[in-house]
Amino acid sequence: MTMLNQEASTIRDQNGKTLQELSQDNPLLVVFLRHNGCTFCREALADLSQKRAAIEESGVRIALIHMSSEDQAADFFAKYGFDDVPRFSDPDKILYRAFELKRGSFRQLLGWNVWKRGFQACILEGHGVGKLMGDGFQMPGVFLLHRGEIVKEFRHRSAADRPDYQEMSSCELPS
Questions:
Q1: Which residue positions in the chain have pLDDT lower than 50?
Q2: pLDDT for the residue 97
Q3: Which of 27, 50, 79, 121 is 20 to 30 A from 40 via CA?
């Protein structure tokens, strides 16, 4: 398990809380998004929305990390039913660095498999695409955080990876 660094505690959600504070009482599923226009991020929010009740019934809360301003993010996240979820606006990518999420390579972001999955998510599933807000090369990730410690992680190998958020929210927690 890895503890969050001090720099991570400087970023607060729209209600003034830090990840450390939010993860004290209940585990926190921390979902790092690429940018609001990203087809796969829209797909991720739709997936999370479908699994949200089951995740929260297990005692896990959800937090979203993004690179747009809170004003831009509020309406975007409300479309997916996440207007009440802690959201961290991180345009300087302080949290992305704290969790050691890297910038993607050409293949990770635009390789053939990414294009195939992008067509599926954008056109066939109807998630669409929007305006780039943030670093389009930033890779996403998902972490289960408890009492400020990372207890489980999913680091995307490509922008097209599709984690199982419900599976990510389950594990044995230290007492």
A1: none
A2: 93
A3: 27
